[in-house]
Amino acid sequence: MAEKLLEVNDLKVSFFTYAGEVQAVRGVSFHVNKGETLAIVGESGCGKSVTVHSLMRLIPSPPGKIKEGSIIFDGIDIISLSEKQMNEVRGSKMGMIFQDPMTSLNPTMTISQQIMEGIMRHKDVSKKEAFEEAIRILELVEIPNARKRANNYPHQFSGGMRQRVMIAIAIACNPMLLIADEPTTALDVTIQAQIIDLMKAIQKKMNTSIILITHDLGVVADIADRVNVMYAGEIVESGTLNEIFYDPYHPYTWGLLESVPRLDMAEDKPLVPIPGTPPDLLDPPKGCPFADRCKYAMVICKEQHPEMTSCSKTHKVSCWLTHPDAPKVERPLGGMKIE
Amino acid sequence: MGRYIGKRFLHSIFTLFIIATVTFILMNLMPGKPFTGEKPIPEEIRKNMEAKYGLDKPIHERYVIYMKNLLRGDLGMSMVHKHRSVGSIIKERFPISASLGLRALSFALIAGLFLGIIAAVNHGKTWDYVSMIIAVIGVSVPSFIIGGLLQYFVGVKLRLFPVTGWESFKHTVIPSFALGLGTLAVMARMMRTSMLDVLNQDYIKTAKAKGLPRRAVVWRHGIRNAILPVVTILGPLVAGITTGTFVVENIFAIPGLGQFLVSSVNQNDYTLIMGLTLFYSLILVTMNFIVDILYGIVDPRITLVERKE
């Protein structure tokens, strides 16, 4: 059994706004093992970013607040740490890559300064040593001419190169966990592939665990070991890559898979969008949050929240259809086989 | 860099030329003439005086003569103040105005930026409201009211500082405060807005994710970026505060240059109007020039060198 690096239990995060309490994350539990990649997928606003920002306690507060739950990372209870203790963890044990490399780098500092900053914060090194270390990391993330480029400013780099610099900043102190919040969304497709390959290479070299947030199922298939599907602030299904792609149980996961083109799909088969919009998290429904958009919805779906049930050791789903008394429905992706 | 500065310099000269021309024309369109005071002067004497100052010539000739003199740096003789050249008036009085202005400015700048930063960092909390109340007061209460109130309470009642005059450092405190408060308010508000904007930027999140303490995030990543837009208005502000001292100079009986600008217009003192307008324009243009160059230094994204390819 793999060793757990991170364990999140029943995490609830809310934002207190003028309109009321927005329950962005509503009781999320998952874990990440050492050296594995966990992907969190779901549509915009489903709480994936809030979840991972909470892991580093980067939720702007106020208005945001971690209401309940526990985050155990490398044996430390993240939520109980003081801000000062938290700063020891940030950057050194956990690194984060953000979505938009164009805005995530400070425009008035050279990239070497920005990488050195983290190194000097967490390691007892001289400025010169930190600079050499920064060069080494820039070479690791495959910035050509690293020594020369180190003293350039972010605006002198392209988007893909900036994302490499962001990765360099995140891995500067050899973190055990790398959190990537939609690292490829702002990049074009060829660069996306390069960045994903780079992350894989770094993971291999440094044995880092990665949490990858994305709504790009192609990226998920490429890199993830396990997948959490999130909807309306909850995890609705979680399992290994194969379980989610080839044996999904939740109608929302079906919907996600049906709405992307696949190579094994008949050419004239249209993509199927998921109708409707996610529920208002100011006043979340008491039943299954997906019930309103689900074509298999039953009476109970709107009345009572489905429990998380295990389909296998690694596969869990929260849907009434898995109940023994539920009618058998034909899965829309019936033709697929587990490889 | 050199090319850019040269080009920018030529622009400045051209701006000054336009200002000189337009002022010259507007001034001559004003009703009244020099020497038409309250007391009527005999026709003959007036004509003699006009001849002496070259006012008997048509306007285009006078314009050419004035511009020629200007090129030699000669601003001419004042038409009202006997035996005083415009240059000597500026030389004597401007240092006082400038000193008052710079004191007010340094006070406004330091306190204003500080207040703005405090407000932004404590967004939505007590300190934010306190600094914004100060800023609103500063913007809405004119300097003569602040000046008068300070004179009465601090000067007359508490006897902490002299009420008027311009002799020692103590004399400069209240006027500088009164003059600087408006600018302080503008600075504080701008810095707050800019800082709030910057603190919401993604790169601040990146800095936090590195585990930097809050102090380092605010200072190293926040302030340098937030100060950029504030630098832009610094030019006009410096010029404005060093030249806009008229009211405060009057209240505190400070022998500065401000009063001359107003009285010269009232008295149709053509040479003095031209001289002071150009002088003030020169300050403004120079300040903008300096700020443009400064901006390129503070923000690495702005290159002052023109691309050749």
Q: State the CATH superfamily name of the largest domain in chain B.
A: MetI-like
Largest sheet of chain B: none
Distance between the termini of chain A: 23 Å
Q: Can you tell me the number of structural domains of chain B?
A: 2
- Averaged pLDDT of chain B, please? 85
Q: Outline of chain A, from the CA principal axes?
A: globular
Oligomeric state of this protein: heterodimer
**For the CA atoms, what is the radius of gyration of chain B?**
24 Å
| Helix proportion range of chain A | 25-40%
- The CATH class of the largest domain in chain B turns out to be Mainly Alpha
Elements of chain A, N to C (H/E): EEEHEEHEHHHHEHEHEEHHHEE
- Total number of helices of chain A: 11
How are helices and strands ordered from N to C of chain B? HHHHHHHHHHHH
Unreliable residue stretches of chain B: none
User: What structural class do helix, strand and pairing data of chain A support?
Assistant: alpha/beta
Low-confidence stretches of chain A: 335-339
Query: Which chain pair shows the most residues in contact?
Result: A-B, 35 and 23 residues
Question: Care to give the gist of this entry?
Answer:
The complex is a heterodimer of chains A (339) and B (309). Chain A is of the alpha/beta class and 339 residues long.
Give an overview in words.
- The complex is a heterodimer of chains A (339) and B (309).
- Chain A is an alpha/beta fold and 339 residues long.
- Helices cover 30% and strands 23% of the residues of chain A.
- In chain A, the strands form 2 sheets. Chain A has an 8-stranded mixed sheet with strand order 6-7-8-3-9-10-12-11, sandwiched between helices.
- In chain A, strand 9 and strand 10 (234-240) form a beta hairpin.
- In chain A, helix 3 (111-122) packs parallel to helix 6 (159-171).
- Mean pLDDT of chain A is 87; it is low at 335-339.
- Chain B is mostly helical and 309 residues long.
- Chain B has 2 domains: 2-71, no CATH class; 99-266, MetI-like fold, CATH 1.10.3720.
- Chain B has helices at residues 2-29, 43-52, 59-71, 86-121, 126-140, 143-157, 169-199, 202-209, 214-243, 246-251, 258-266, 270-298.
- The mean pLDDT of chain B is 85.
- The A-B interface holds A 56, 58, 62, 83-84, 86-92, 95-96, 98-100, 103-109, 114, 117-118, 121-122, 153, 155, 166, 169-170, 172 and B 124, 201-203, 205-214, 216, 220-221, 224-225, 298-301.
